[in-house]
Specification:
This protein is α+β, with helices and mostly antiparallel strands. The chain has a domain at 7-18 and 57-129. 23% of the residues lie in helices and 35% in strands. β6 (54-64) and β7 form a beta hairpin. The model has no long low-confidence stretch (mean pLDDT 91). GO terms for molecular function: DNA binding; zinc ion binding. Keywords: DNA-binding, Metal-binding, Zinc, Zinc-finger. Belongs to the replication factor A protein 1 family. Residues 9-95 form the Replication factor A C-terminal domain.
């Protein structure tokens, strides 16, 4: 594996998916398997009560510099300032919104949130650590 790290100045071309947060294991940051009462991490075996689940940002983007296109995924709390809230707080807002609107897909991000993220990111230039 190449361990060279660098910075890349690039513009966001598109958002690759509409799910910006995921239930994350606090030990290894892998996606948790949730049911109505429990969570389970398939990677490290961590388990707990669903009400204690923590969430983490995962923003998949297509970006372009002056010469190339890249698919990149940005994880974690570095996105807190851009979203204005932690992933846990955004998840609570999404749950409340979905409950009020009658949405049954608990993983669904409201369309208005997807539009807001697209407006805030697409066409903007960022510096990415790669």
């Amino acid at each position: 594996m190449n361990s060279v790290r660098g910075l890349l100045s690039a513009s966001v071309i598109s958002i690759q998916n509409s799910c910006f947060i995921y239930p994350a294991c606090q030990k290894c940051f892998s996606r948790l398997i949730l049911d109505s009462r429990r969570f389970n991490c398939l990677k490290c075996g961590c388990t707990g009560e669903a009400k204690d689940t923590s969430y983490r940002y995962r923003l998949s983007l297509k970006i372009a510099d002056t010469n190339d296109l890249f698919d990149i995924t940005v994880f974690g709390s570095c996105l807190d300032p851009l979203f204005g809230v932690t992933a846990d707080n955004l998840q609570r807002c999404i749950q409340d919104f979905n409950q009020l609107s009658g949405e049954t897909n608990t993983d669904a991000s409201p369309g208005v949130l997807v539009q807001a993220v697209e407006t805030c990111f697409i066409g903007k230039r960022f510096i990415f650590g790669v």
